[in-house]
Amino acid sequence: GNPRAVAIAQRVPSLDGMRVGLINNNKPNSHLLQEHIVELIRKQFRIQDVVLLQKPNPAVPAVGLAEWAKEVDVVITAMGD
Predict the structure, then answer these.
(1) For FRET with 40, which of 16, 23, 50, 62 sits at 20 to 30 Å CA-CA?
(2) d(Cα 35, Cα 53) in Å, to the nearest integer?
(3) What is the DSSP letter of 16?
(4) How do residues 2-55 score in pLDDT, each as one tens digit?
C-alpha cells in the first residue's frame, strides 16, 4: 500500500498546569528514563499531575490506551533499550 501523510500534533507552549502522561514500553532501562523524565519535568514546570501507563511488554500494544488518554493533557513516551 501507499504510505499516507499524518500531521504531527501541535506542541504545547508550556507544561504548567498540565496532566502529563508517560507511556513506558517496558524495555530494559525504560523505567530509569521514565523516572528521569518525571524528575526533569517537575523541576522545570508546575504540572498538575503525572499519569503513568506501562505496556505489559515491548512487543504488544498498550492496554487501556483510550481510557488513559482521557486522563491526560499531553503525552510523552519513555522508551529504553
Answers:
(1) 62
(2) 13
(3) T
(4) 788 878 778 889 999 999 999 888 888 888 888 998 999 999 999 999 999 888
